[in-house]
Amino acid sequence: MIIKPSMRSNFFTNAHPLGSEQFVLEQIKEAKASPPFKGPKNVLIIGGSSGYGLASRIALAFGANANTINVSYESGPKGKRTGSAGYWNNLYFQKHANETNTTHIDFLGDAFGKETKAIITKTIKETFGHVDLVIYSLAAGGRRNEETGDIVQSHIKTMGEPIHGKTIDIKSEKLIDITIDNATDQEIKDTVFVMGGSDWQDWINYLDKAEVLSEQAKTIAYTYIGGPTTQSVYRHGTLGQAKTDLEQKAKTLNTLLAKTYKGEALISSSKAVVSKASIFIPQMPIYVSCLYDVMLKADKHESILAHKYRLFKDMVYGENRLTDKENRIRVDHIEMEPSIQKATNNLMHSLDDNTLFDLKGTKHFLQQFYKISGFGYSNIDYEKDIDLDTLNTSLRDNAQIIE
Fold first, then answer.
1. Is 309 among the catalytic positions?
2. CA-CA distance, 61 to 44, in Å (whole number)?
3. Backbone angles phi, psi at 325, to 5 degrees
4. Residue 342, in any domain of the structure
5. Would 147 be classed as within a structural domain?
6. Which residue from 78, 91, 191, 336 puts its CA 20 to 30 A from 223's CA?
7. Pairing relation of β-strands 142-144 and 151-153?
8. Helix, strand, coil shares, percent, the chain, to 5
9. Of 222, 234, 309, 317, which residue is the catalytic one?
10. What is the pTM of this model?
């Protein structure tokens, strides 16, 4: 199969496995070039196939020599379908993590489900005995209500007037108008149910009852705060309500872990990142592009791997933790520097629809958006025919994948 980028409504419908390998290798190379640190031995990552979850896994495996278990809802190749980028990320992570002489297992399934929690807990007991760190980095559009059997959907909406703005149309590389409507009360509740902290709490309670959390066990979940540009749709919208719930659950979990294990539950506010979802938030791609341009010029830009490496090395397991009044770890402090925010805001308001695409930051945004799905690498021949079945079988024969 010759795999070219296939996009519909700003969403890649396919992925290139060889590009996914490069995506993983870029982060591994960066981790191996960084100084090692003392961290957890056994880690469970809920949502570790892409984004900050994958970067966390790589940072801990190659920086702290940790064993990892990841659960993610990914699909492999079938017929004309290439399989998801996250699926190939998992396989290539395992391929290259073999050199660490540590153990890594991937579960492909619904992280929300009780059956998934049961089988992973059983595997922890049999393989590691316990886990020292649980990372909650799940990004999902829907969650099954196990009481009713219904799939509950999340919504990116405001909690006030509809928001009109612009986003980048990736295929044409032009700005297009986008509108986010006002959410109903039910849509707010549904978004909190899917993207809030209840499942994180369920996981920790389940692991606690199964007695697989170690002494001084930690758990961490990721949030985003951001600047004033995206406040109305992010922190003051349905997404913000979900993040507020997540942050509240951290306080409850911290009480449990501190009392029972002398451990802690943490919330970390991450920097703005190129993600599949960011393109659907008005002004967010423009903000991220301008932010990257400003940070690149100031020599303050961090890759996704460097960002998470610094979080674990310096703040979770180091002595340089930065927190705010809500006790959230502010690893996003560079993005939120007043000078960076001011320069980003000024740049956003100085551009027109054409000059935005001349920015180095915008070019970086677009490159990263393609790389998430394995495209845009100059060292890959995208005209080459790929035998997906043979490649998949070869990789899976040397990996621990459980479906």
1. no
2. 12
3. -65, -20
4. no
5. no
6. 91
7. antiparallel
8. 45, 20, 40
9. 234
10. 0.95
Q: Six-digit token pair at 384?
A: 């080459």
Residue with tokens 């980048």: 168
The count of structural domains within the chain is 1
At position 321, the amino acid (one-letter code) is: R
**Neighbour tally for 122: CB within 10 Å:** 12
Per-residue pLDDT of the chain (403 residues; tens, 9 = 90+): 999 999 888 889 999 999 999 999 999 999 999 999 999 999 999 999 999 999 999 999 999 999 999 999 999 999 999 999 999 999 999 999 999 999 999 999 999 999 999 999 999 999 999 999 999 999 888 999 988 999 999 998 988 888 888 899 998 999 999 988 999 999 999 999 999 999 999 999 999 999 999 999 999 999 988 877 777 767 788 988 999 999 999 999 999 999 999 999 999 999 998 888 888 888 899 999 999 999 999 999 999 999 999 999 999 999 999 999 999 999 999 999 999 999 999 999 998 878 999 999 999 999 999 999 999 999 999 999 999 999 999 999 999 999 8
Cα gap 127→398, rounded to integer Å? 17
In a domain, 313, yes or no: yes
Report if residue 77 sits inside a domain: yes
Distance CA 295, CA 341 (A): 10
The domain that holds 22 is classified in CATH as: 3.40.50.720
Which DSSP helix (H) or strand (E) runs through 56? helix 51-63
**Domain assignment of residue 251, given as a range:** 7-141+187-273+304-334+382-402
How far is 190 from 17, CA to CA, in rounded Å?
Answer: 34
Structure tokens at 125: 């007991």
Structure tokens, 264:
């802690």
